[in-house]
Amino acid sequence: MSESEILDTHLQELRRGTIVLACLRLLEQPGYGYGLLEQLGDRGFPTDANTLYPLLRRLEKQGHLTSEWNTDEARPRKFYRTSAAGSRLAAALTDEFHAIATAIDSLPQED
């Protein structure tokens, strides 16, 4: 495995948890899957549909998201929104993310 492939694998692992947090925070305003994919990408969280849709279903099953179908347009879309439990989880994850970033900043760095 090349150094680049190893880095990509570690970056993917590092980002995995941040996608959950980003979704919970972005979905404080209702959104649908494809629109959320674009928002995530625009904000520095590149994600693919094969990752996002199972994540949305899991968060909904856990009670962190609610959903409803919008059938007003020609193509029905399932809109998701962060629930009260999801907002509490997002706040806790945000606090922990900041604590981890502070801890990392305190580690020695190679010059």
UniProtKB/TrEMBL annotation:
Domain Transcription regulator PadR N-terminal: 26-89
Source superkingdom: Bacteria
InterPro entries registered for this protein in UniProt: Metal_resp_DNA-bind_regulator (IPR052509), Tscrpt_reg_PadR_N (IPR005149), WH-like_DNA-bd_sf (IPR036388), WH_DNA-bd_sf (IPR036390)
Matches recorded under PANTHER family: PADR-FAMILY TRANSCRIPTIONAL REGULATOR, TRANSCRIPTIONAL REGULATOR RV3488
Designated name of the protein: PadR family transcriptional regulator
Biological classification of the source: Bacteria, Bacillati, Actinomycetota, Actinomycetes, Micrococcales
